[in-house]
Write a structure and sequence with these properties.
Elements: H1 4-9, E1 19-23, E2 36-43, E3 46-51, E4 55-59, H2 60-66, H3 72-75, H4 80-83, E5 86-89, E6 93-103, E7 112-113, E8 118-121, H5 124-131, E9 139-149, H6 152-158, E10 162-166, H7 169-173, H8 180-187
Parallel strand pairs: 5-9
Antiparallel strand pairs: 1-2, 1-10, 2-3, 3-9, 4-5, 6-8, 6-9, 7-8
Length: 202
Amino acid sequence: MVDIQTLKSKGERGFLDGQFLIAMPGMPDGNFSRAVVYICAHSSDGAMGFIINQPQQLSFVDILRHLKIVADEDAILLPDETRDFPIQKGGPVESGRGFVLHTDDYLTQSSIPVSDEICLTATVDIIRAMSRGRGPKKASLLLGYAGWGAGQIESEIANNGWLTCPADENLIFDHGLDDKYDRALALMGIHPAMLSMQAGHG
């Protein structure tokens, strides 16, 4: 599977870079039912991104405990905003691996620029910083990612699997997941009732 570092290292930008993919009602893959995907990298080799509207059962405290950043007895002392920080399902690939999409006010040597304002960091350092209130201004912590091989996503779009539109930073980092699909469609001036399995794409 092609990963973001491979795609970005080529210096090649595909037409889906920085775009949202919004699943059509007829999406055959259950992993992507009503999914909104933020594409981080796209080239002739494939595409990589994150589902931004699917909740994850784990809590941020669970992650901190697992990484031994906080001990069980100290978890209760964490501020509410840390305890309540939502974890999301980023996609079906490497679903046990954590990724943080975030604003570029936090950078480490391992941070990968995704756009002019958004970066991706997949090291424990950012989790530790977030737990101490020293992380980025806006962030989403996701487990797993979505990946496509060469020509695969183009084929899915041609077969009416996805709508595409420019990504909206506010929607990426908005933790209100329940209606994010509808709000992503609204960016295109589309109401969910307007969609059908036979609808064309924009």
